[in-house]
Amino acid sequence: MKKRLLAILAAVSVAAGAMTACGTEKAPENEEVKTEEVKENDSVEEEEATTQAKAEDEGGLKEEPAPAEDKKNDTADEFKDDFSSTLSYIKKNAGKAVSIDYTKSPAKKAGKYTPDDSYQTIEDDLGNYKLTRVNALNSENGATIIVDVYRNRSDGKIGKLISTEYGSLGRVVSGWYLKDDEIIYEYRYNDDLYGTNQHREDYSLSEKDDEEKVRDEGLLTLEAVRDVPGYARVYGYVGDEYGGVLKNVYATIKSAANSFEQETQTNGDGYYEFYVPVNTEDYYNISFTYGDFVPDSANDIRISEGVTEYSCGIMYMAAKGQNKHDTDVYFMNINKKALDNLKDGEYEAVLEYDGSAALLTPYFMSMGDGKSEKKETLKFKPDKDGDWKYYVKDEKNYGSNNMAYDMSKCGASVTIYDKNGIVECFNAPAVHAGVLWEVFEVKNGRILPVGNYYFDTLEGIF
Questions:
Q1: Which residues contact 292 (CB under 8 A, 6 or more apart)?
Q2: Can you tell me the distance from the alpha carbon of 269 to that of 285, in angstroms, rounded to the nearest whole number?
């Protein structure tokens, strides 16, 4: 059954539910996903239940050994984020934001707070910490919260948390540095919705009540996110060559290095989604099959640290001899090189889109002075002393038609190269309304994905 793509562009946002302050839509619900790994886990649980029942028949349950003392506080031993463990977490929690209740007291009350200058050592070394980005919400007011968790690669301990809570007036950013689960330094400030740092207002934590409140919220945040591994929603749409969408297309995602395969079907809007672990071993590939149509694939999908959403755009399929689009897509084409010769440590960001469908401008903005470079092909060199953000603005609709789909429909992508080839590839969210895309940031000498998409506009920034 087919529907017109142009019709669902307006309908999806209504049917999908309310948008957050970031302008992110709730995805349409997908049909059942078949996963071999999950079935194996189920069989293990059944076997354990059978073993326990047998023990009861033979004379009662054996006494279980007492848990190791203080084991619950050993986060390095408890936390597991390998591929298999993350799949188990996804099975139970995929699509659910972590709820944080700031009205309660933390389980472990903090002692006297004395700011410790050693936090600077953690900050200087953050480039070597593993980043996990967690989608959360404030259970009291329902606000969206994004938590960045920086975990020491050697001992697994969390060294820093950054919480960004989005509201109607902007965002509240809180940071906590930790040593053995104790907060050694903290900060908080207000910023505009886009996080440009141009309207920053720092909180004064000189008052004891204010300081304790922020510290307790840090400990509650730690409790909520400490065991959440890195994973992402990979999604997209499948359409035909005539502007319609295709229902019941089989989509199969694979990771050869992890012997992983998962299958689903597109729904009535041509939509599909998968929840998959961060994958540093290889890339994900998705294959599409639909009756006698020519099979297609989307390849080299990189889910790196910090990625929580990945849009594969719209895959077009057609019967043999009718296909006008490329049959296979490679997001991380290993044969594609930067337009300019790059030196060690240099990168190049390239904005590409269909110029007949939209008018877009990139903004590579300094978080220090707010100045921006506006080049579709831009060379840069990450510097620990300078933070930057990369935005893409819909020049035609910004401020006049904020619910426009031009950027989403024009196939906008930002590709980052180094001297060896493609490092990252980001695609504008498919079938989403919005006029400003916050693509990535450069922080602590590191390129970090962001992926916020906004339909709210602010004057005097862009």
A1: 319, 320
A2: 22
Size (the chain), residues: 462
The pTM for the full model equals 0.81
DSSP-derived 3-state class of residue 327: coil
Domains 1-27+229-329 and 333-462 belong to one CATH topology: yes
145: helix, strand or coil = strand
Nearest Cα to Cα of residue 258 among 280, 286, 228: 280
Percent of the chain scoring above 70 in pLDDT: 82
Half-sphere exposure of 278 (CA within 13 A, CB side): 19
Q: Does domain 333-462 have CATH number 1.20.120?
A: no
pLDDT at 447: 92
287: three-class secondary structure by DSSP = strand
For residue 389, give the nearest of 410, 363, 369 by alpha carbon: 363
DSSP track, 348-364: EEEEE--TTT--EEEEE
* Nearest-10 crossing angle of helices 83-93, 36-57: 80
Look up residue 308 and give its DSSP letter: -
Q: For residues 439 and 448, give the distance between their C-alpha atoms in angstroms, rounded to a whole number.
A: 9
- Please check whether residue 358 is in contact with residue 396, taking contact to mean a CB–CB distance below 8 angstroms: yes
**CATH H-level, domain 1-27+229-329: superfamily:** Immunoglobulins (2.60.40.10)
Q: At 326, is the pLDDT very low, low, confident or very high (cuts 50, 70, 90)?
A: low
pLDDT in tens, 267-299: 999 999 999 999 989 999 999 999 999 999 999
Name the residue among 350, 373, 369, 360 with its Cα closest to residue 436: 360
Domain boundaries, the chain: 1-27+229-329, 80-225, 333-462
pLDDT, tens digit, 9 for 90 and up, residues 192-240:
999 999 889 998 877 777 889 999 999 999 999 999 999 999 999 999 9
